[in-house]
Amino acid sequence: MTERREILIIGGGIIGLSIAIELKSQGIPVTILCRDFSEAATHAAAGMIAPQAEEIPPSPMLDLCLASRALYPDWIHKLESLTGMSASYWACGILAPRYQASEGMLDRASILSHQPDLSDEVVGGFWFPQDAQVDNRALAKMLWMAAQELGIEIQTGVHVERFISDSNITHLETTQGIWKADRYILATGAWSQDLLPIPVFPRKGQMLSVRVHETLPLKQVLYGEESYIVPRQNGRIIVGATSENVGFQKGNTAIGVHQLLSAAIRLYPPIQEFTLEETWYGFRPATPDELPILGSSPFANLTLATGHYRNGILLAPITAKSIADFVLTEKSDSQLAAFHWSRFCSN
What we know:
Elements: E1 2-10, H1 14-25, E2 31-34, E3 48-49, H2 60-83, E4 94-98, E5 106-107, H3 108-114, E6 124-128, E7 132-133, H4 136-149, E8 153-156, E9 160-165, E10 169-174, E11 177-186, E12 201-211, E13 221-223, E14 228-231, E15 236-240, H5 254-267, E16 275-286, E17 293-296, E18 302-306, H6 312-329
Parallel strand pairs: 1-2, 1-11, 2-8, 4-13, 11-18
Antiparallel strand pairs: 3-7, 4-6, 5-6, 9-10, 10-11, 12-15, 12-16, 13-14, 14-15, 17-18
Helix pairs in contact: 1-4, 1-6, 2-4, 2-6
Protein backbone atom coordinates (compact mmCIF):
# COMPACT_ATOMS: atom_id res chain seq x y z
CA MET A 1 0.00 0.00 0.00
CA THR A 2 1.29 3.48 -0.91
CA GLU A 3 -0.07 6.67 0.65
CA ARG A 4 0.49 10.08 -0.94
CA ARG A 5 0.34 13.45 0.82
CA GLU A 6 1.53 17.03 0.22
CA ILE A 7 3.56 17.45 3.42
CA LEU A 8 4.49 14.72 5.88
CA ILE A 9 5.77 15.55 9.35
CA ILE A 10 7.58 12.65 10.97
CA GLY A 11 7.13 13.02 14.72
CA GLY A 12 4.12 13.92 16.85
CA GLY A 13 5.71 15.66 19.82
CA ILE A 14 5.46 19.35 20.64
CA ILE A 15 7.70 20.37 17.74
CA GLY A 16 5.92 18.30 15.09
CA LEU A 17 2.48 19.33 16.32
CA SER A 18 3.40 23.01 16.54
CA ILE A 19 4.75 23.07 12.98
CA ALA A 20 1.68 21.23 11.69
CA ILE A 21 -0.66 23.71 13.40
CA GLU A 22 1.25 26.67 11.96
CA LEU A 23 1.16 25.26 8.44
CA LYS A 24 -2.50 24.29 8.63
CA SER A 25 -3.38 27.73 10.00
CA GLN A 26 -1.93 29.13 6.78
CA GLY A 27 -4.06 26.81 4.66
CA ILE A 28 -1.48 24.14 3.94
CA PRO A 29 -2.63 20.49 4.26
CA VAL A 30 -0.29 18.46 6.40
CA THR A 31 -0.14 14.92 7.79
CA ILE A 32 1.68 13.82 10.95
CA LEU A 33 3.14 10.32 11.28
CA CYS A 34 3.39 9.59 15.00
CA ARG A 35 4.87 6.40 16.38
CA ASP A 36 3.94 6.89 20.04
CA PHE A 37 2.67 10.20 21.42
CA SER A 38 3.48 9.11 24.99
CA GLU A 39 7.21 8.85 24.16
CA ALA A 40 7.57 12.53 23.28
CA ALA A 41 10.08 14.53 25.35
CA THR A 42 7.25 17.03 25.96
CA HIS A 43 5.82 14.76 28.64
CA ALA A 44 9.12 14.66 30.54
CA ALA A 45 9.75 18.42 30.63
CA ALA A 46 9.10 20.83 33.48
CA GLY A 47 7.64 23.49 31.20
CA MET A 48 10.05 26.31 32.03
CA ILE A 49 10.27 29.21 29.61
CA ALA A 50 13.64 30.29 30.89
CA PRO A 51 16.15 31.76 28.42
CA GLN A 52 17.53 34.10 31.06
CA ALA A 53 17.52 31.74 34.03
CA GLU A 54 19.46 29.19 31.98
CA GLU A 55 22.16 31.86 31.54
CA ILE A 56 22.45 31.32 27.80
CA PRO A 57 25.29 33.65 26.73
CA PRO A 58 24.76 36.35 24.07
CA SER A 59 24.49 34.33 20.87
CA PRO A 60 22.09 33.35 18.10
CA MET A 61 20.69 30.77 20.55
CA LEU A 62 19.82 33.45 23.10
CA ASP A 63 18.26 35.59 20.36
CA LEU A 64 16.14 32.63 19.23
CA CYS A 65 15.05 31.81 22.78
CA LEU A 66 14.13 35.41 23.60
CA ALA A 67 12.16 35.70 20.36
CA SER A 68 10.25 32.52 21.21
CA ARG A 69 9.52 33.67 24.77
CA ALA A 70 8.06 36.88 23.33
CA LEU A 71 5.71 34.84 21.13
CA TYR A 72 4.42 32.70 24.00
CA PRO A 73 1.48 34.71 25.41
CA ASP A 74 -0.22 35.18 22.02
CA TRP A 75 0.64 31.64 20.91
CA ILE A 76 -0.92 30.14 24.03
CA HIS A 77 -3.97 32.42 23.77
CA LYS A 78 -4.65 31.28 20.20
CA LEU A 79 -4.36 27.61 21.16
CA GLU A 80 -6.60 28.04 24.20
CA SER A 81 -9.20 29.93 22.14
CA LEU A 82 -9.17 27.18 19.52
CA THR A 83 -9.50 24.28 21.95
CA GLY A 84 -11.23 25.65 25.03
CA MET A 85 -8.43 24.06 27.06
CA SER A 86 -5.79 25.60 29.33
CA ALA A 87 -2.05 25.04 29.34
CA SER A 88 -1.67 26.91 32.65
CA TYR A 89 0.74 29.49 31.23
CA TRP A 90 2.03 31.44 34.24
CA ALA A 91 4.30 34.47 33.91
CA CYS A 92 5.56 33.87 37.43
CA GLY A 93 9.20 34.82 36.88
CA ILE A 94 12.16 32.67 37.85
CA LEU A 95 14.37 33.06 40.91
CA ALA A 96 17.91 31.70 40.64
CA PRO A 97 19.43 31.31 44.12
CA ARG A 98 23.20 30.85 44.36
CA TYR A 99 25.46 29.23 46.95
CA GLN A 100 28.47 31.33 45.95
CA ALA A 101 28.69 35.06 45.31
CA SER A 102 29.00 36.26 41.73
CA GLU A 103 29.02 39.63 40.02
CA GLY A 104 25.73 41.43 39.62
CA MET A 105 23.59 39.19 41.76
CA LEU A 106 21.09 40.26 44.41
CA ASP A 107 22.04 39.81 48.04
CA ARG A 108 20.50 37.20 50.34
CA ALA A 109 17.96 39.60 51.86
CA SER A 110 16.68 40.55 48.42
CA ILE A 111 16.38 36.93 47.35
CA LEU A 112 14.52 36.04 50.56
CA SER A 113 12.09 38.89 49.94
CA HIS A 114 11.06 37.02 46.79
CA GLN A 115 11.05 33.59 48.42
CA PRO A 116 11.30 32.97 52.17
CA ASP A 117 12.67 29.75 53.69
CA LEU A 118 15.48 29.16 51.24
CA SER A 119 18.55 27.29 52.42
CA ASP A 120 20.96 28.96 54.83
CA GLU A 121 23.60 28.23 52.20
CA VAL A 122 22.02 30.64 49.72
CA VAL A 123 24.08 33.85 49.66
CA GLY A 124 22.19 35.64 46.91
CA GLY A 125 20.97 35.11 43.39
CA PHE A 126 19.22 36.50 40.35
CA TRP A 127 15.61 37.41 39.57
CA PHE A 128 14.29 37.02 36.03
CA PRO A 129 10.76 38.49 36.01
CA GLN A 130 10.14 37.88 32.29
CA ASP A 131 10.76 34.14 32.41
CA ALA A 132 7.68 31.98 32.82
CA GLN A 133 6.30 28.45 32.81
CA VAL A 134 3.62 26.32 31.21
CA ASP A 135 2.21 22.94 32.19
CA ASN A 136 3.97 20.78 29.62
CA ARG A 137 1.52 17.88 29.86
CA ALA A 138 -1.47 20.18 29.47
CA LEU A 139 0.29 21.88 26.54
CA ALA A 140 0.87 18.53 24.82
CA LYS A 141 -2.81 17.63 25.14
CA MET A 142 -3.87 21.07 23.97
CA LEU A 143 -1.64 20.88 20.87
CA TRP A 144 -3.07 17.45 20.04
CA MET A 145 -6.61 18.82 20.39
CA ALA A 146 -5.76 21.92 18.35
CA ALA A 147 -4.46 19.71 15.55
CA GLN A 148 -7.70 17.75 15.59
CA GLU A 149 -9.82 20.92 15.67
CA LEU A 150 -7.98 22.17 12.58
CA GLY A 151 -8.55 18.91 10.76
CA ILE A 152 -4.90 17.89 10.65
CA GLU A 153 -4.51 14.26 9.74
CA ILE A 154 -2.59 12.37 12.45
CA GLN A 155 -1.61 8.80 11.74
CA THR A 156 -0.67 7.11 15.02
CA GLY A 157 1.23 3.89 15.53
CA VAL A 158 3.22 4.47 12.34
CA HIS A 159 6.90 3.68 12.78
CA VAL A 160 9.02 5.17 9.99
CA GLU A 161 11.77 2.63 9.39
CA ARG A 162 13.85 4.41 6.75
CA PHE A 163 14.07 7.19 4.21
CA ILE A 164 14.51 6.08 0.61
CA SER A 165 16.37 8.67 -1.42
CA ASP A 166 18.27 9.63 -4.52
CA SER A 167 18.97 13.37 -4.73
CA ASN A 168 15.70 13.84 -2.81
CA ILE A 169 13.65 11.77 -0.43
CA THR A 170 11.51 9.61 -2.72
CA HIS A 171 9.42 7.88 -0.05
CA LEU A 172 9.27 6.51 3.47
CA GLU A 173 9.18 2.85 4.39
CA THR A 174 7.01 2.39 7.48
CA THR A 175 5.32 -0.32 9.46
CA GLN A 176 2.12 0.79 7.72
CA GLY A 177 3.40 0.65 4.14
CA ILE A 178 5.00 3.24 1.88
CA TRP A 179 4.33 6.96 2.31
CA LYS A 180 5.19 9.60 -0.28
CA ALA A 181 5.02 13.39 -0.12
CA ASP A 182 6.19 16.51 -1.90
CA ARG A 183 7.96 17.65 1.28
CA TYR A 184 9.03 16.00 4.50
CA ILE A 185 9.77 17.50 7.93
CA LEU A 186 11.81 15.50 10.43
CA ALA A 187 10.77 16.20 14.04
CA THR A 188 11.51 12.91 15.78
CA GLY A 189 13.60 14.33 18.61
CA ALA A 190 15.93 11.88 20.32
CA TRP A 191 15.13 9.22 17.71
CA SER A 192 16.27 11.34 14.72
CA GLN A 193 19.50 9.40 14.20
CA ASP A 194 17.45 6.30 13.42
CA LEU A 195 16.57 7.95 10.10
CA LEU A 196 19.44 10.31 9.29
CA PRO A 197 23.16 10.34 10.17
CA ILE A 198 22.90 13.56 12.19
CA PRO A 199 24.36 13.87 15.71
CA VAL A 200 21.19 13.81 17.79
CA PHE A 201 21.26 11.45 20.75
CA PRO A 202 19.11 10.80 23.83
CA ARG A 203 19.92 12.49 27.10
CA LYS A 204 17.85 10.87 29.82
CA GLY A 205 16.22 13.12 32.38
CA GLN A 206 14.66 11.82 35.59
CA MET A 207 12.12 13.97 37.41
CA LEU A 208 9.69 13.79 40.30
CA SER A 209 6.83 15.70 41.81
CA VAL A 210 5.62 16.44 45.30
CA ARG A 211 2.34 17.97 46.37
CA VAL A 212 1.48 20.55 48.99
CA HIS A 213 -2.09 20.45 50.29
CA GLU A 214 -2.18 23.85 51.96
CA THR A 215 -1.47 27.24 50.40
CA LEU A 216 1.25 27.02 47.76
CA PRO A 217 4.38 28.43 49.45
CA LEU A 218 6.30 28.93 46.21
CA LYS A 219 5.29 31.88 44.05
CA GLN A 220 7.86 31.46 41.27
CA VAL A 221 10.18 28.86 39.81
CA LEU A 222 13.42 28.22 41.71
CA TYR A 223 16.31 27.58 39.33
CA GLY A 224 19.18 26.39 41.49
CA GLU A 225 22.72 25.34 40.70
CA GLU A 226 21.92 21.63 41.15
CA SER A 227 18.20 21.39 40.49
CA TYR A 228 15.09 23.35 39.68
CA ILE A 229 11.77 23.46 41.50
CA VAL A 230 8.68 24.37 39.47
CA PRO A 231 5.46 25.05 41.41
CA ARG A 232 2.12 24.60 39.67
CA GLN A 233 -0.83 26.67 40.81
CA ASN A 234 -2.76 23.48 41.63
CA GLY A 235 -0.28 22.53 44.40
CA ARG A 236 1.86 20.15 42.37
CA ILE A 237 5.60 20.91 42.49
CA ILE A 238 8.01 19.54 39.87
CA VAL A 239 11.64 18.75 40.73
CA GLY A 240 14.21 18.13 38.01
CA ALA A 241 16.25 16.96 36.41
CA THR A 242 19.08 14.52 35.93
CA SER A 243 21.04 14.57 32.69
CA GLU A 244 22.35 11.13 31.81
CA ASN A 245 24.18 9.70 28.79
CA VAL A 246 22.71 6.21 29.08
CA GLY A 247 21.02 5.80 25.71
CA PHE A 248 17.37 4.80 25.86
CA GLN A 249 17.71 3.10 29.25
CA LYS A 250 14.24 3.05 30.71
CA GLY A 251 13.08 3.61 34.27
CA ASN A 252 13.79 5.78 37.27
CA THR A 253 16.73 4.81 39.43
CA ALA A 254 17.19 5.05 43.19
CA ILE A 255 20.30 7.20 42.79
CA GLY A 256 18.53 9.48 40.33
CA VAL A 257 15.61 10.10 42.67
CA HIS A 258 18.01 10.48 45.60
CA GLN A 259 20.01 13.14 43.75
CA LEU A 260 16.86 15.07 42.86
CA LEU A 261 15.48 15.03 46.40
CA SER A 262 18.83 15.89 48.00
CA ALA A 263 19.39 18.86 45.69
CA ALA A 264 15.82 20.14 46.13
CA ILE A 265 15.94 19.85 49.92
CA ARG A 266 19.29 21.62 50.00
CA LEU A 267 17.83 24.51 48.00
CA TYR A 268 14.42 24.73 49.66
CA PRO A 269 14.32 22.71 52.92
CA PRO A 270 10.50 22.84 53.44
CA ILE A 271 10.07 20.58 50.42
CA GLN A 272 11.15 17.57 52.53
CA GLU A 273 7.79 17.70 54.31
CA PHE A 274 5.67 17.62 51.15
CA THR A 275 4.00 14.45 49.86
CA LEU A 276 5.99 12.55 47.23
CA GLU A 277 3.59 12.13 44.33
CA GLU A 278 5.23 10.76 41.16
CA THR A 279 8.51 9.91 39.46
CA TRP A 280 9.10 9.73 35.70
CA TYR A 281 11.74 10.08 33.04
CA GLY A 282 12.15 11.03 29.40
CA PHE A 283 14.70 11.36 26.63
CA ARG A 284 15.74 14.82 25.49
CA PRO A 285 17.21 15.18 21.99
CA ALA A 286 20.75 16.46 22.54
CA THR A 287 23.40 17.52 20.04
CA PRO A 288 27.17 17.93 20.62
CA ASP A 289 26.83 21.70 21.07
CA GLU A 290 23.40 21.45 22.76
CA LEU A 291 21.82 23.59 20.02
CA PRO A 292 18.92 22.52 17.78
CA ILE A 293 19.19 21.51 14.13
CA LEU A 294 16.80 23.63 12.08
CA GLY A 295 16.16 24.30 8.43
CA SER A 296 17.36 22.62 5.25
CA SER A 297 18.95 19.18 5.03
CA PRO A 298 21.14 17.33 2.51
CA PHE A 299 17.88 16.64 0.63
CA ALA A 300 16.01 19.55 -0.98
CA ASN A 301 12.59 18.22 0.03
CA LEU A 302 13.49 17.39 3.66
CA THR A 303 13.43 20.01 6.43
CA LEU A 304 14.95 19.42 9.87
CA ALA A 305 13.45 20.47 13.20
CA THR A 306 15.15 18.43 15.90
CA GLY A 307 17.81 18.44 18.62
CA HIS A 308 16.10 20.97 20.90
CA TYR A 309 17.54 19.30 24.03
CA ARG A 310 16.18 21.11 27.11
CA ASN A 311 14.49 23.87 25.16
CA GLY A 312 11.76 22.14 23.18
CA ILE A 313 8.96 23.75 25.18
CA LEU A 314 10.58 27.18 25.05
CA LEU A 315 11.40 27.03 21.35
CA ALA A 316 8.13 25.54 20.09
CA PRO A 317 6.53 28.83 18.92
CA ILE A 318 9.58 30.17 17.08
CA THR A 319 10.40 26.76 15.59
CA ALA A 320 6.86 26.43 14.26
CA LYS A 321 6.93 29.93 12.75
CA SER A 322 10.43 29.66 11.28
CA ILE A 323 10.03 26.17 9.83
CA ALA A 324 6.60 26.95 8.38
CA ASP A 325 7.97 30.11 6.76
CA PHE A 326 10.90 28.15 5.34
CA VAL A 327 8.65 25.44 3.91
CA LEU A 328 6.29 27.99 2.37
CA THR A 329 8.87 30.39 0.93
CA GLU A 330 11.88 28.06 0.52
CA LYS A 331 13.93 30.93 1.92
CA SER A 332 15.81 30.31 5.14
CA ASP A 333 15.48 32.89 7.89
CA SER A 334 18.91 34.32 8.73
CA GLN A 335 18.04 33.55 12.34
CA LEU A 336 18.30 29.83 11.52
CA ALA A 337 21.79 29.97 9.97
CA ALA A 338 23.53 29.11 13.25
CA PHE A 339 21.46 25.95 13.59
CA HIS A 340 22.14 24.39 10.19
CA TRP A 341 23.10 20.70 10.14
CA SER A 342 26.29 21.44 8.21
CA ARG A 343 28.00 22.83 11.31
CA PHE A 344 28.75 19.21 12.23
CA CYS A 345 30.40 18.37 8.92
CA SER A 346 34.17 17.87 8.90
CA ASN A 347 36.14 20.35 6.83
